[in-house]
Amino acid sequence: MTRALTSTTTLVLYALAVAGPLQLMSAPAMAQANVAKPVDKIGEWGIYVAGTGKQKFCYAATSPKERKPDNLPRDPAYLYIISRPAENVKSEITVVLGFAAKAGSTAKAEIGSTSFDMTPKGKELWMDNAAKETQMVAALRKGQKLVLKTTSQRGNVTTDTYVLSGLDKALERVAKECQ
Question: How many distinct structural domains can be found in the chain?
Answer without folding.
Answer: 1
